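Quick one, tokens below. Sequence please?
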């Protein structure tokens, strides 16, 4: 694992030792052991003394209320605006297509 003053490593392996897993969680090894003991973090993978980084991420997401499966409960104002703009543009295209159809129809052209 990188020293505290070093920038974060570019590649962190998926399977971590206890020291690396504790550092990944910004905990001491004693604090990491306590979180594992209380069930906040998963135990080591069966038959090893190694932790799965993805399982740790999942446990931390659960603790913080982040769900990887569900979309955000309320869309952002930007997302709302984008959806309304898309709907407006689609309505405009449909309206212009209808006008174009009327103009292309020889019987309707004289009435416009």
């Amino acid at each position: 694992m990188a020293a505290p003053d070093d920038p974060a490593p570019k590649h962190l392996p998926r399977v971590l030792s206890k020291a690396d897993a504790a550092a990944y969680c910004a905990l001491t090894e004693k604090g990491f052991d306590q979180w594992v003991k209380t069930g906040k973090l998963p135990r080591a993978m069966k038959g090893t003394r190694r932790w799965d980084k993805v399982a740790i991420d999942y446990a931390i997401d659960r603790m913080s209320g982040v769900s990887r499966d569900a979309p955000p409960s309320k869309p952002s104002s930007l997302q709302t605006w984008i959806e309304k703009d898309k709907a407006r543009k689609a309505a405009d295209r449909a309206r212009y297509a209808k006008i174009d159809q009327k103009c292309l129809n020889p019987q309707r052209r004289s009435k416009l």
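The two ends are 76 Å apart (CA to CA). The chain has two domains: 15-64, 77-109.
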